[in-house]
Design a protein that fits this description.
CATH topology of the largest domain in chain B: Rossmann fold
Mean pLDDT of chain B: 93
Radius of gyration of chain B: 27 Å
Bound molecules: flavin mononucleotide
Number of domains of chain A: 1
Number of helices of chain B: 24
Structural class of chain B: alpha/beta
Distance between the termini of chain B: 72 Å
Strand order of the largest sheet of chain B: 7-8-6-5-9
CATH architecture of the largest domain in chain B: 3-Layer(aba) Sandwich
Largest sheet of chain B: 5 strands, mixed
Largest interface: A-B, 39 and 44 residues
CATH superfamily of chain A: Glutaredoxin
Number of helices of chain A: 4
Oligomer: heterodimer
CATH architecture of chain A: 3-Layer(aba) Sandwich
Number of domains of chain B: 5
Distance between the termini of chain A: 58 Å
CATH class of the largest domain in chain B: Alpha Beta
Low-confidence stretches of chain B: none
Strand content of chain A: 15-25%
Order of helices and strands of chain A: HEHHEEEH
Chain lengths: 123, 598
C-alpha cells in the first residue's frame, strides 16, 4: 500500500517506542523490576508488563523499563526501583499492576514520589 | 495483551552469520517458545555491530547486555537466567569494564565504541534491516519526504555541497559538485548509480552497510535522482555478497510497496525506481567507467575520461556514481542539516569515515570515526592494540591503491590530506595492521600479485608494466636482487603511474612506492645482506639446528617431509639446506628450542 507523508509519520511514531528500547542512553530514567524467582512468584511479571504498557501508551521518552535479579528483600516483592539521573533511587515494594500504572502517572509524569508505596512506608 | 518488554538483537552480518548466528536465532525462538515468552520478547536479526572479532554478538535490551562469542548451547542459559529471571549471564559479557559495572552500563562507554561516531552506520546493529518500519522509526524516509516537498533540486545540491561531503569510494571528490555537474546537463534521461563493488582485499564497509541498513542507500539514491533529474538508478554489487544482495532486494521490494520507489512518490509527481546489477567480482569493475560498461552488459573495461560520467555515463547519458558509504551519509545530512555534518572532522575532510579494521589487531571489525582521529587512537584505543605482545610496525590503508604508514607516523590524523601527505591514501576504508612479523617487501608483493591478476589488460603500462614490476620485486624477495633492481623498481613505478589508462594502473605501484619510502632498509637487507629481517621470505630463510641444544630425539627428522634432516639417535642432528623447503615443521616439533631460523 502506498504511503502518504502523514502515514509515514504515523509509522514513525508507532515504531519509535519499539526502537527506543535499544538506545544506550545513560541519561534515561530507569525503572527496574526485580525478576528473580521470589519476584516472579510474587507477581513481578504482570507488573513489568504493566510498566512497559503504560510507558508506551503515554509515549514517555527517555524511560527504560528493565529487569534485574533478586533485590534482597524478598518478603516485600514485587519490588521496583526507579533511578533518575541526579536523584536518590526510589524503591517501591509490593507493587501490583494498578500500583505500577499509578507510579508511571504520578512519579514519572507528575514527578511526585508516592510515599505510601515506598520501602520507607512498609513495615 | 501483547507487550514486548525485551528485545534480543542478534547480529546477522556476514561475519557473525558464518560463525553460526542463524542457529542462535533459531535457538532463541525455540527456547522462548518453550517458556511461553514469545509474545513478550522479540528476537531481531540486525546488521553488523562492528566487533566482528568477538562474534557472534547478541545484545539484550533494555538492559543493553552485550554478549560476545555466543554459541547455540549458550542460548538456553541466556533465556533461563537473563530473560526469565533478570540475571545477566556474566561469563558471556564483553570486556572487563562492562562486567564490573552494574546492570546499567552503556555500550558507548566501552573503549571500542567511546571514540566512534556513527553516522553512516547509525542503523547498523540497531534495526532489523529486513523491516522497513524499523528504518522509518529511526527517521527513515523523512529526508526523502522533506526533499520532495520542501526543497528544490538546487537546494538539495547546495545542502550536500555545504556539508562538505566527499566521496568515500577512494578519490574523495566533493559529492555536491559531482551532482551539480550532472544536474546541469540538459537531458530527459539520466542515471544514478551506486558503487557496491568493494574489491579491495580486506574491506567490508560497504557490504556491512548494505547488510545492516539497505534502506538508507535506497533513500539517498532517490534523493540524488531528484537532485539531478534522474528517474532510474542501479546498485552495482558483487555477487559474492549474497546476504547484502538479498537484503537490498527485500528493501527495494518494501520501498516499492510503500510507494517510496516507483511513480508519483508522496504524491509529488516525482518518479524514481531502482534495480540491482550483480558484478562478477573483478576489481577493475569498481572503476567508474568500467562499472558502467559492465552494467550495460559489456566486458568491464575502463575508458579514458573526459568525457566524465556526469556528461556521458551509463548508456551515454549523464550519470552520477557514488559509493555506498557516501550515500549512507546523505539522509542524515538532509535531516540534521549540513552544519551538523560540517562540524565533525577536519577543515577539508568533513564528517566521519568507516574503516574495516583487520590484520594484527585485537578488535577486528568495523569502526566509524570522526575524520582526523589519529591512527594511534584507532589502533591502540578502539582496536585494542596489537595482540600477543607484538610490536606495531605499520598500517596499510587504501588497499592495492594505497600505502603503508610506519610506526613513526602513528600520530597521523586520518583524513584525506594527512594520509596523502605521508604517502598513503584514505582509500575506501580498508585498514590492515601489521606487526614485527610482517615483511614489508612481501606485503608490497602481495598487493602487486593482486593488481597483476586484476589488470583488465586494455593498456600496456598496466598489463605489462605491472608484471615486470612483480618480477622485479619477486627477484628481490628471492635474494637475487641488486641495488640497481631497487632503482629500476622505483623508476618503473613512476612510469606505470604516469602512463596507465585508469585508476587501477595509476595507483597500483603505490604499495611499492610507499614501502620504498618508509622501509627502504628492508629492501636493502634483502638485496645486500640477502636477509629478510622479519623472517618471512622463504628463499632467504635458513633453518639451523643448534648442536648444543639438540639432544638427538629424532622427532624433527621424522616430521621433515623431504628427508632433509639427518643424524644419529642421541647425537645432534643437522639440516641439509639444499634439500630443505623451509616449511618450518621441524621448528614447530622441536621441544628443546634447538631449531632456529635466520
Ligand atoms: C581500480 C579501481 C577500483 C575501484 N573500486 C571501487 C570500489 O570498489 N568501490 C567504490 O566505491 N569505488 C571504487 N573506485 C572508485 C570509483 O571509480 C569512483 O571514484 C567512486 O565510486 C565514486 O564514488 P564516490 O565519489 O562516492 O567515492 C575504484 C577505482 C578504481 C580505479
Amino acid at each position: 500500500m502506498k504511503k502518504s507523508i502523514e502515514e509515514l509519520n504515523a509509522i514513525r511514531e508507532r515504531m519509535k517506542q519499539t526502537i527506543q528500547m535499544r538506545s544506550d542512553n545513560s541519561n534515561n530514567v530507569r525503572v527496574v523490576v526485580g525478576m528473580a524467582t521470589c519476584g516472579i512468584a510474587a507477581g513481578a511479571r504482570p507488573v513489568l508488563a504493566a510498566f512497559v504498557d503504560e510507558v508506551n501508551r503515554r509515549q514517555l521518552k527517555n524511560v527504560t523499563v528493565a529487569q534485574t535479579g533478586c533485590i534482597g528483600v524478598c518478603r516485600l516483592e514485587p519490588i521496583v526501583e526507579i533511578y533518575e539521573p541526579g536523584k536518590e533511587k526510589v524503591t517501591y515494594v509490593k507493587v501490583d499492576e494498578n500500583k505500577a500504572r499509578m507510579i508511571v502517572a504520578e512519579h514519572l509524569v507528575n514527578q511526585r514520589v508516592i510515599e505510601e508505596y515506598t520501602i520507607g512506608a512498609a513495615k | 495483551m501483547n507487550i514486548v518488554r525485551s528485545h534480543v538483537l542478534v547480529c546477522g552480518g556476514t561475519g557473525c552469520t558464518s560463525s553460526n548466528s542463524p542457529e542462535i536465532i533459531k535457538q532463541f525462538n525455540k527456547e522462548l517458545d518453550k517458556r511461553g515468552l514469545s509474545d513478550e520478547v522479540k528476537v531481531i536479526q540486525t546488521g553488523c555491530f562492528g566487533l566482528c572479532a568477538l562474534g557472534p554478538i547478541v545484545i539484550v535490551y533494555p538492559e543493553g547486555s552485550f554478549y560476545s562469542m555466543v554459541k547455540p548451547e549458550d542460548v538456553e542459559e541466556i533465556v533461563e537466567e537473563h530473560i526469565l529471571k533478570g540475571r545477566i549471564v556474566k561469563r558471556l559479557l564483553y570486556e572487563g569494564d562492562l562486567k564490573e559495572a552494574k546492570v546499567a552500563t552503556s555500550l558507548n562507554d566501552t573503549n571500542f565504541y567511546k571514540k566512534q561516531k556513527r553516522i553512516a552506520l547509525r542503523n547498523c546493529g540497531v534495526i532489523d534491516p529486513e523491516n522497513i518500519d524499523e528504518y522509518i522509526a529511526n527517521d527513515g524516509y523523512q529526508a526523502l519526504a522533506k526533499v520532495l516537498t520542501q526543497m528544490t533540486p538546487e537546494e538539495v545540491i547546495d545542502t550536500i555541497t555545504a556539508s562538505g561531503l566527499r566521496g568515500r569510494g577512494g578519490a574523495g571528490f566533493p559529492t555536491g559538485r559531482k551532482w551539480a555537474f550532472a544536474a546541469k546537463e540538459d537531458n530527459p534521461v539520466k542515471y544514478v548509480c551506486c558503487n557496491a563493488d568493494e574489491g579491495d582485499p580486506g574491506a567490508f564497509m560497504d557490504r556491512s552497510l548494505l547488510e545492516g541498513d539497505p534502506h538508507s542507500i535506497i533513500e539517498a539514491m532517490a534523493i540524488a535522482g531528484y537532485a539531478i533529474g534522474a528517474h532510474q538508478g542501479y546498485v552495482y554489487v558483487r555477487a559474492e555478497y549474497p546476504i547484502a544482495v538479498k537484503r537490498l532486494q527485500i528493501a527495494i521490494r518494501q520501498a516499492r510497496e510503500y510507494g517510496f520507489l516507483g511513480e508519483d512518490i508522496f504524491g509529488t509527481g516525482f518518479n524514481f525506481d531502482l534495480d540491482v546489477r550483480l558484478g562478477a567480482g573483478a576489481f577493475v569493475c569498481g572503476e567508474e567507467t568500467a562499472l558502467m560498461r559492465s552494467i550495460e552488459g559489456h566486458r568491464g573495461e575502463p575508458r579514458p575520461r573526459p568525457p566524465f560520467p556526469a556528461v556521458k555515463g551509463l548508456f551515454d547519458k549523464p550519470t552520477i556514481l557514488n559509493n555506498v558509504e557516501t550515500y549512507a551519509n546523505v539522509p542524515w545530512i538532509i535531516n540534521n542539516g549540513p552544519e551538523a555534518f560540517a562540524s565533525i572532522g577536519t577543515e577539508k575532510s568533513k564528517g566521519t569515515k568507516v574503516f574495516a579494521l583487520g590484520g594484527k589487531i585485537t578488535n577486528t571489525g568495523l569502526v566509524e570515526i570522526p575524520m582526523g582521529t589519529t591512527l594511534r587512537e584507532v589502533i591502540e584505543e578502539i582496536g585494542g592494540g596489537v595482540p600477543n605482545g607484538k610490536k606495531f610496525k605499520a598500517a596499510q590503508t587504501g588497499g592495492p591503491s594505497g600505502g603503508c604508514i610506519p610506526e613513526s607516523l602513528i600520530d597521523t590524523p586520518m583524513d584525506f590530506e594527512s594520509l596523502a601527505a605521508v604517502g598513503s591514501i584514505m582509500g575506501s576504508g580498508g585498514l590492515i595492521v601489521m606487526d614485527e612479523d610482517n615483511c614489508m617487501v612481501d606485503i608490497a608483493k602481495f598487493f602487486l600479485q593482486f593488481t597483476v591478476d586484476e589488470s583488465c589488460g586494455k593498456c600496456t603500462p598496466c598489463r605489462i608494466g605491472m608484471r615486470r614490476l612483480l618480477e622485479l620485486v619477486d627477484k628481490i624477495t628471492s635474494g637475487n636482487g641488486t641495488l640497481e633492481d631497487i632503482e629500476l623498481t622505483e623508476q618503473l613505478c613512476y612510469h606505470i603511474k604516469e602512463n596507465s589508462l585508469c585508476g587501477l594502473g595509476q595507483t597500483a605501484p603505490n604499495p611499492v612506492l610507499s614501502t620504498l619510502q618508509h622501509f627502504r632498509d628492508e629492501y636493502i637487507a634483502h638485496v645486500v645482506d640477502k636477509r629478510c629481517p622479519a623472517g618471512v621470505c622463504k628463499n632467504l630463510l635458513r633453518y639451523q639446528i643448534l648442536a648444543e641444544k639438540c639432544i638427538g630425539c629424532t622427532s624433527c627428522a621424522r616430521v621433515c617431509p623431504v628427508g632433509a634432516i639427518s643424524g644419529e639417535v642421541k647425537k645432534p642432528h643437522t639440516i641439509d639446506t639444499s634439500k630443505c623447503i623451509k616449511c618450518g615443521a621441524c621448528m614447530e616439533k622441536c621441544k628443546f628450542g634447538a631449531i632456529v631460523k635466520n
